[in-house]
Specification:
Elements (H helix, E strand, L loop, with lengths): L1 E6 L3 H16 L3 E2 L8 E6 L4 H17 L4 E6 H8 L9 E3 L6 H12 L16 E8 L10 H4 L4 E2 L2 H13 L4 E6 L14 H11 L4 E4 L9 H8 L8 E3 L7 H7 L5 H14 L4 E8 L6 H14 L3 E6 L7 H9 L3 H24 L5 E10 L2 E6 L4 E5 L9 E9 L4 E5 L3
Parallel strand pairs: 1-2, 1-3, 3-4, 4-5, 6-8, 8-9, 10-11, 11-12, 15-17
Antiparallel strand pairs: 6-7, 13-14, 13-16, 14-15, 16-17
Helix pairs in contact: 1-4, 8-10, 11-13
The structure holds iron/sulfur cluster.
């Protein structure tokens, strides 16, 4: 039997799809590309932007066309919306699983109970990668005014320490050398269980594993404390000197309307605190531009703020209204015209590119530790501990899945280049 999975959206979805792929492989399924004929198409959907919703619908339709006898299973955030309000019926060939929590287990049940094809638990991945995402938590109830997630994923649910450790041991046995811990709102990890917080978890994982480094996918600024940062950097090279702190806006007026829970000044102080502990830490971020009512001054404040902080990488998104959120109501009367949103995106991306180049240049002549993910024509490609894409000359297949020291020789806005160095 043939199965294909299309994953949209966040790292949590990616981690869940990895688990699913592993389960299908173990059960003897052939994994095929989404454009090929499959018996089962799984669309692991996203509802964070209008674009993600559009793509989800597109993939469902494409799968229906690809194999008139196939079955399409829609899971993820958009599946819940789909079920709740809109495209309730697409005929018998589409099964909509509105579960947002533990979707891999829900799919396991669906295959075992309704389709008569048991999938083997536990759904541990068999990765082909040297880096793997591990979902440790689901759910967020922060209710930022633009975000649909709190309406879709019910409450906060964290996994147990031992359960996470088991998965990581399994991954490291398969050759994974970097684990990216992810969650809907990672900083909320442990809030529901009382077993320990995110930093307790990291200390536990570092103590109980070896030969693998840890990275955090994202941390909301209002959840980053000084105690966390001190304990984090005390873990040394086992954790990556890289923090992704979503800023969203550099204007206090917009931040308040977004209900982010911090001001620009508080954010700047956090970054300064982190840098006082580890000066060359990579601080990356997400920014939304064209939020309803964002004036030219608000946008300019964001541009200035980003320049002052000196992010090493920025992801810039044009605001897109999510139905049912307060910001989608404001969009009706205070929306920024699309061409202006796009112009602001382009302007900020240009700023981001220059900042990345500046950050990359600061490592010329220095050593970085790169996890080589693949090699092409003797050039190893991978990420450094501080999340710089690195091209490493003089490598071969033996370097794949190893963390190697690299002397940086040249820097570009997108990556740096260098050669293997001595330890
Ligand atoms: S912190 Fe805000 S943006 Fe992030 S998931 Fe929660 S509500 Fe959404």
């Amino acid at each position: 039997m043939r199965v294909s999975i299309k994953t949209l959206g966040c790292k949590v979805n990616q981690a869940e799809s990895d688990l699913l792929l592993a389960a299908f492989k173990k059960a003897g399924f052939t994994i095929v590309d989404f454009d090929e004929v499959a018996d089962y198409y799984i669309v692991n959907s996203c509802a964070v932007t209008e674009e993600a919703e559009r793509k989800t619908r597109q993939y469902v339709r494409r799968a229906i066309r690809r194999n008139p006898q196939g079955l399409v299973i829609l899971v993820g955030c958009y599946a819940k919306l789909w079920k709740d309000c809109r495209y309730a019926s697409l005929g018998e060939r589409v099964i909509v699983l509105p579960t947002v929590r533990e979707k891999e287990r829900a799919i396991g049940r669906l295959f075992a109970e309704q389709l008569g094809v048991p999938l083997p638990p536990p759904f541990f991945p068999y990765p082909s990668r040297s880096r793997a995402w591990v979902k440790v938590q689901e759910g967020c109830d922060h209710f930022c005014s633009f975000c649909l997630v709190p309406y879709l994923r019910e409450g906060v649910q964290s996994r147990e320490f031992e359960d996470i450790l088991r998965e990581i041991h399994h991954l490291t046995e398969q050759g994974v050398r970097e684990i990216v811990l992810c969650g809907t709102n990672l900083g909320y990890f442990g809030r529901d269980t009382g077993e320990g917080t995110l930093i307790d978890l990291l200390e536990f994982l570092v103590a109980r594993t070896e030969g693998v480094r840890f990275r955090l996918s994202s941390l909301e600024p209002y959840l980053l404390s000084k105690e966390f940062a001190i304990r984090y950097f005390a873990l040394g090279t086992r954790v990556c000197p890289h923090l992704h702190l979503p800023l969203q806006s550099g204007s206090d007026r917009i931040l308040r309307r977004m209900r982010r829970g911090y001001s620009a000044k508080m954010y700047a102080e956090l970054v300064a605190m982190v840098r006082s502990l580890y000066p060359q830490v990579a601080v990356t971020t997400d920014v939304i531009v064209g939020f309803p009512g964002e004036t030219a001054e608000d946008f300019e404040a964001t541009v200035q703020f980003c320049q002052n902080i000196g992010f090493s990488r920025m992801h810039v998104f044009a605001f897109s209204p999510r139905p049912g959120t307060p910001a989608s109501e404001w969009e009706k009367s205070e929306g920024i015209p699309k061409p202006e949103k796009q112009r602001r995106v382009r302007q900020l991306l240009t700023v981001g590119k220059a900042l990345s180049e500046e950050y990359h240049k600061s490592f010329v002549g220095k050593k970085l530790y790169v996890l080589v993910e693949f090699v092409e024509e003797n050039i190893g490609i991978g990420y450094s501990e501080n999340y710089i894409p690195v091209h490493v000359e003089g490598t071969n297949q033996d370097n794949v899945r190893k963390i190697v020291p690299v002397l940086v020789e040249r820097a570009w806005p997108t990556h740096v280049e260098g050669r293997l160095a001595l330890q």
